[in-house]
Amino acid sequence: MKEYIEKEQKETTNKLSNWVGLVFDDDSKGIILYFGDNRYHIITNDVYANGRNGTCGGLEDDGDSIKDTIDKWRNDIDSGTKITTIFCFDSYRELMTWFYCLVTG
How remote is the C-alpha of 72 from its chain's centroid? Predict the structure, then answer.
């Protein structure tokens, strides 16, 4: 796993991968997934009463690339939570291992 930053400050990457994880200022995690039709969307590990992971925003917050999705979320003043850290993973498996959220009933 590599942390993505826009300005190099430590051993990191400045190139987004296909498998991106986000950390928000409320310590929740999110991942950006491709939904088809040139749409990327953020899914969070905030689990609601129905036992499902949450989504961030609506169709208007979907981007046409991973970077566009991040930029839209950062520029949305009504988003409520802010992205604090971006991680790039080498594989879907590595991303999902990081994101995994055990739901207990």
Answer: 12
